Amino acid sequence: MPLTPEQVREHIPFLEKYVYLDNGATTPVPLPVQEAMSAYYNEYLANVERGAYSVAHEAHERFERARENAAKLLLGCEPGEFVFTRNLTHASNIVAYALEHPLLTTKDGTFTLSEPLVDWKSGGKKNIVGTMLEHHSNTMPWLRLAHHVGAEYRVVRPSNDMVLSPDDLLEAVDGNTRFVAFQHVSNVLGSIHPVREITRALKEAYPDIMVFIDGSQGPGHLPVDVKDIGCDFYGFSGHKGPLGPQGTGGLYIRKEVGERMDPMEVGGGMMADVTLEGYTVRTDAVGRRFDAGTPNIPGMIGLGRAAEYVAKDIGMDRIDERERHLAQRLIGRIKDLPGVKIYGPENPEHRGGVVTFTIEGWLCHDVSNALDDGWRILTRSGHHCCLPLARWLGTIDRYGGTTRASMGYYNMEREVDLLAEALESLTGG
Question: pTM of the prediction?
Answer without folding.
Answer: 0.97
